[in-house]
Amino acid sequence: MASVPEGTARGNVFQEFARLRRPKMMVQAAGIALIPVLYAGAFLWAFWNPYGHLDRLPVAVVNEDAGASFRGERLNAGRDLVEKLRSDHSLGWHFVTPAQASAGMADGAYAMEIVIPRDFSKRAVNRAEHTGAPAPEITSVTNDRYNYIAGVIGRNAAVKLASETALELAKSYTASLVDALESSGTGLHKAAKAADALASGGRELEAKGELLVSGASQLAAGADRLAGGLEQASQGAGALAQGASQAVSGADRLNAGLVRLNQGAESLAQGASSWANQARAFGEAGDKLGEAAQEVGQGASQLAAGAGKLTTSLGQLDTGASHLASGAEALAQNASQFAQAANQTAAGSQQVASGAKQLAEGLQQLAKANPALAETPAFQSLLATSAEVAQGAAQTASANEQLASGAAGLSQGASQLAAGAESLASGLKQAEAGAAPLQQGLQQLAQGASGVAQGGTRLAAASGQLATGASQIAQGAKGLAAGTGAAQQASSSLRGGLVQLQGGAAKLAVGNRALAGGAASLASGAGKLANGLGAYQAGVGKLASGSEALAANLANGASKLQALHGGAVIAAVAHPVSLHQVELGDIQTYGNGFAPYFLSLGLYVGVLMMSVIFPFREPYGEPKSGVAWFFSKWLLVVAIAWAQALIADAVVLGLVGVHTAHPLGFVLFSLFASTTFASILLALVALLDNPGRFLGVVLLILQLTSTSGTYPVSLSPRFFQAVGPWLPMYATVSGFRYLIGGGDPSLMARDLAELAIYTASFIAIGVLLFAGFFRRLGRAEPKTV
């Protein structure tokens, strides 16, 4: 229970100020008045602008980058970053070796270590050239044991450094990209020219397409005509095969006739040889007859003998003449048959030659209509074979004609020879018949011996000529036999060739039919080709139109690419977005931001410390009433709190440099806040004494953790979020923030209202407490305090 010192009289509400007359109490009061400024001033001075001295924060930088090649140029991003940091004073950069950095981080010499790895540039190049390649990486090592806030600042600085490095790399990438785009513009110009050329070529191709369509139509018509010609050629080849068959039959007949002619020639040669011998014998007889006629005088016996020999010789000569006539007739017949066979062979050869000629002409037409077919080896062989067949058939026909002409002449000569031989035989028969009268007229012969001798001489000469002619006939017959033998061999060869010709003509007919079928297919394909070429021509027209549009677009794109400004593009890509920051409140430094918190803390702690020096319950004198007692205490505490507030305001606004748009409002609000804190703590300490001070400390802790003085209360646990708005320091911090940074005046009015409620409430509580104290004071014995 409070007591009144002895010897004191009842005083007024200002009696508590009498305590300040003591020098010791005055010193204590002055020290208590400095409590808020020690809190607020020292804290604000220390935290006024910590980021303004980041150049004092030691950071080790280790560059191990080996560099890399990028698009033909040397890139060393690590070296470039180090050079940039040398001119950057945002942190205290120390460029050291890995060993020095490790040692400095171990002993706390460095707050952070920045390591640029060896493959930093290489990764940057790979990242630019390969999708999904790992990004270049900077390693930051912070030493939270050195200072946690320093670690936080270092990590934030590392993030900023990585962002700026990425920005520089983006500039390099973009510069390379701009160079490539400019080169692409040149390439696009070339592509546009090529597209123009393509369009021109398309137009020309479109114009030529009509010729292609016309040519394809002509090809189809020619293929149709080729098919018809090949059909005719096939028919001609069939006729050729038939003619060759007939020629084979004629050759067979020719060969048989030549056999018979050869046999007749051999018989003629034998008969002519015998006739020649008989003619020689007759000539000898004539000689003898002449001799006998000359020697007619030698005797009739010799003449009779000579006449007998003459009769015998005439008989033999008659026989030879008959043989000669028979051989000549056979020769004539064989020669006639040979001539007929030769004429038939010549006719067949002519047909073969005509068919082969028609085939050759058809093949030449086919070659003109289809040059590709004409180049094939099979077609060339067929064309050469047809030409050779035509030439051989023509030569065979000519030879057969000559052979037929010779055979006809031979037949005529043989007929004449047969007629002569028959006449000779008739004459010889007559001579033989006249031999008997000759014997009877020996006498007459003897008489005309001289005439007979002369006739014998002439007969001998004629017989010699006859023998010579017979020998020539025999030699001619032998030659004829040899010729007919050779002709027989030639006829056999001719027959073999004709058989081959017949087989070739049959194959030719089959081949022509196949060619006719192929020509029909060619005609069909040519028709389809003509139709397809029509569609192709339309497509070429579209190609030309598309190429013209492509050329125009390429030229436009190239112009746009060349219109790009490299610097502008690099700036646009490197800084695609600019940030416009709007700050609601003029808070320039950490000090300005923390001033509401530290000033509220200082004013509250100042009143709390005051409760230790000044008694918040015991009166200095005997109070007149409980109300006077309370207000005498309240006025003293508030006066000292105001002194604390004024001193703190002077230091904070004058020396520290807190900026406020409302200086007078700031001072008045600090006085109001001090009044509120004084009213609250006076009531608590007066009510509970030391436990009241403990509650004041608990209240301070709650306010420090839930009033958004440092971090937003929304980041705190839900308990502090719920308690904070109901505490007085929440209103003081909010009010000081408005006065420093500005804001909604309605919030300031709410803060004033809350503080007024707190002040009035605790004043009322204090009045009630001290009224109770006053009632008990009369029953208590006085004690010395």
Q: Could you please describe the fold and organization of this structure?
A:
This protein is mainly alpha-helical and 785 residues long. The chain folds into 3 domains: 10-49 and 591-777, no CATH class; 55-146, Rossmann fold (3-Layer(aba) Sandwich), CATH 3.40.50; 202-547, Up-down Bundle (Hemolysin E, Chain: A). It has 20 helices and 8 strands. A hairpin with a 2-residue loop joins β3 (68-70) and β4. α1 (23-33) runs antiparallel to α14, α6 runs antiparallel to α7 (300-369) and α14 runs antiparallel to α17. It is rod-shaped and about 245 Å long.
Q: Percentage of helical residues? A: over 70%
What fold name goes in the CATH topology slot of the largest domain? Answer: Hemolysin E, Chain: A
Q: What is the CATH top level name of the largest domain?
A: Mainly Alpha
- Please name the CATH architecture of the largest domain: Up-down Bundle
Strands of the widest sheet, in order across it, are 5-2-6-7
Structural class: mainly alpha
Termini gap: 11 Å
Cα shape: rod-shaped
Using only C-alpha atoms, the radius of gyration works out to: 76 Å
How much beta, percentage-wise?
under 5%
Total number of strands? 8
Instruction: Please count the helical segments.
Output: 20
GO molecular function: ABC-type transporter activity
Pfam families: ABC2_membrane_3 (PF12698)
Protein name: YhgE/Pip C-terminal domain protein
Membrane topology: Multi-pass membrane protein
